[in-house]
Write a structure and sequence with these properties.
Layout (H helix, E strand, L loop, with lengths): L1 E9 L16 H13 L6 E2 L8 E11 L5 H9 L6 E9 L11 E10 L12 E3 L5 H8 L4 E4 L14 E12 L2 E8 L6 H13 L7 H8 L14 E7 L2 H11 L1
Parallel strand pairs: 3-10, 5-6
Antiparallel strand pairs: 1-3, 1-4, 2-3, 5-9, 5-10, 7-8, 8-9
Helix pairs in contact: 3-4
Amino acid sequence: METVLLTVAYDGSRYYGWQRQTKLRSVQGELEKALSHALKQPITVDASGRTDAGVHGLAQTVTFRYIKTLPIEKMVVVINRRLPEDIIILSAEKVNDDFHARYCAIAKAYEYHFAFGCDRNPFNSSYRYNQPHHLDIDKMIVAMKDFEGTHDFTAFQATGSEKENTIRTIYKVHLEKRNDEFVFTVVGNGFLYNMVRIMMGTLFSIGNGQIPEASIPQIIKSQLRANAKVTAPANGLYLKQVFYDKASLENFIKNLN
């Protein structure tokens, strides 16, 4: 048996999330079906984490074990032929048997893409959130820095998804304009369910003047989900990268500056 690490990209707009489901189309389900067919054995993958319906993956990582029926160096080409056009394997590599896509990860980066003050466009509506209100980007940039550091992010997890440990460290937040849209990037050692989308929703509330610029520390301290306002839509969210070593994490953060 060999253990393989795959890096996978996917357009999540036509899937009911990452996780395998009995009657609904999922990214994991399509990937496992293609792997099982190509490798001629039942394959179950373990991902770095799950993404919701409509969320995209630029570099999701998964591990699985298999009896070697296909050389790893041929895996990308062979399996991509069996995948839908909106899922693609970017790389495949052999890893140690104790390597796990989720438990060995030390950090993740997400991006959230949005625009405002522009006409609705049906050709990009699945890939960014078109905010209907004007946003003060300068206020958002100042406010978002309060997310950085180690905090109890109870207020920024979905209601009903409580975890025993809600303390997370955010290493870096960054907001930049790319062409006609804005991209918010957040890097942390882990994220609660819906955490990035709730963070983004809070920044939207600051940007459109619904809550003060200095609200984030008080929201964090309150530990009340209602204080963090709305959850931003899924279509703007992308899993950007999963990190397994300190050097790649530090290099990514450095390049954000």
